[in-house]
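Quick note —
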Amino acid sequence: MNQANVEKLVSKLNYKVRQDPRKLKTVLGPEGRIKKLQKSLTAIIKYERLEMNYERADETRGYVERLISEAIRHGPENKEIMDLADFWILEKQLVHKLFKVLVPRYQNHTSPFTKLHNAPCIYPGSGFKRAVLELKGNVYPPIEQIDPHQPNLLHNLLLDAARKEYRMEKYKEIAENMKF
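Predicted structure written out below.
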């Protein structure tokens, strides 16, 4: 009986949360850490895709998932949820985006609302693992490709055009050399 009551009080996140501590130390201490997370959460709601250090992306993901799931469960009429959104989202016009755009988009989702992708390091040996955190259903082209060898993908079209141009130049050189 108790467990049923607890499940109603706290929503369940749809992704596995890391158990080990994250390396998010700042000069300002815990307050600086919260400010970094607020900036990251605001940016992910604003831009819907963000590249950052893996540790911060993973931590931010949990807060974004929790904020969206609570907004879906309780709606904008709930004072506690509005206070929570007001605390975590620094640009106040994005609170409207949360309730008017993101909540309807994820209303019937049973999977996580975010995706976390590994990204290449900016400089080899820098020591910081990079990641891309994105909201599902955003307007940007997908990062992961199921089959990168499809002929209609942009990079394959560009490579084919470059190959064709290269061959045409070589044929011209050969033709010019044969005339003499």
